[in-house]
Design goal:
Layout (H helix, E strand, L loop, with lengths): L10 H28 L6 H18 L1 H11 L7 H7 L11 H12 L3 H4 L2 E2 L5 E2 L3 E8 L2 E8 L7 H15 L8 H14 L2 H15 L5 E2 L12 E5 L4 E2 H5 L5 H22 L1 E3 L7 E3 L5 E3 L5 E3 L2 H9 L3 H4 L2 H10 L9 H18 L7 E3 L3 H15 L2 H5 L9 H17 L3 E3 L4 H9 L1
Parallel strand pairs: 5-10
Antiparallel strand pairs: 1-3, 2-3, 3-4, 4-6, 7-9, 8-11, 9-10, 12-13
Helix pairs in contact: 1-2, 2-3, 2-4, 3-4, 7-8, 11-18
Length: 441
Amino acid sequence: MKTIDKIPTGKLSRTSKWVTTGAKLGRNYAKYYGKKAFNPNLTKDELNESNASDIYDGLKDLKGSALKVAQMLSMEKNLLPDAFVEKFSLAQFSVPPLSAPLVRKTFNKYHGDYPENIFDEFKLESVNAASIGQVHKAKKYGKNLAVKIQYPGVADSISSDLAMVKPVATRMFNIKGKDSQKYFKEVEDKLMEETDYQLELEQSQRASASCSHIKGLHFPEYYPELSSEKVITMDWMDGLHLSEFAKTDFKKSTGSQIGQILWDFYMYQIHVLGEVHADPHPGNFLVTKEHELVAIDFGCIKQIPDQFYKPYFELAEPQKINDSKILNKKLKELEILRTDDTDEEVKYFTALFHEMLSLFTTPFHSETFDFGDEDFWQQVSSLSEKYSQDEELRRMNGNRGSKHFIYMNRTFFGLYNLLHDLQAEIDVNHYKKYIDEKKSA
């Protein structure tokens, strides 16, 4: 893969790159409408493919938070056209890496010395490049290690990058109103946390200690003395990325075994720890030869406050979501219904969220759930399509819901998609045995 010798880090240079990308999109639309004039039945498939390629090509050179947003969107399989999902998913762990000279220069800047002076062996060629950093293989203490190095200027460009993508996001998610800034601030704060590798080190060690008793779940050991604010060193873990494993010919029972570990890990975090690994894309999980799971990259941890947790999960109970008084109360607590809503808006959004939450909480309504059930995914797809084309929704203020929805919804959509890739049938309450084990230990 072609390497990168320089990343635009200044606001002007990064904005110029985005403007160039915008001009390409304009030409794509002009080309599409020119063809459409002669062929009224022409679909947007070719337009979507061209736009997805041009946007991704621009973002992969910028790296950082702009590319991270694309990675986040790639998990929204029912929101974006397939061409965008396919292209943006490359941001998970397959983008052009830094060149060897830039790797040495960046490492020295962050760590105060060159990598060959610290490790017994250090491969300058990246083995995994993503949106915020890239991973190198190294050796020390007689162990194979993974060394993640952050790209230059990532933290400094977050605010300006989000300002660039904000117009696109406001149109895509119908965000209006003066208090919409709380959503962008939530994303900005989490992205800033992801650039702090010392914080990630602490979060990684905390998650490892808290969840190590979950059977079949593994974590690398981390090395604080070989890490810094922009460099993090851990054990090298062997296995296939979950997305790679999902493409293999595995048995339903094997997918369910791995999926159960994943489900237990997430439910234990949410219901016991009050925080969760909020970046569940396949590049953050490895499947071992024994069909067990390795969890890596704890840069994005979402704290779940009680005032959000309680109403959020109360609405996962059918008897409560189907009680109009309780539903109304919980929707207000979750900031879905607003004090300035008209009667029409209250009626509309109550019906909308009742339908959405009833569907998305279906896995919690029985003892077991099969994420390979295509009927469930067809319902999800149909519901997404229904509201994406709803003109009435476009007229209304889509700026509603607690800021905590952003990463909680991202977590569940990502988790559901991973379980679907595994065709996993899971025991919904199996994680509770780990709670009992902790209590009796």
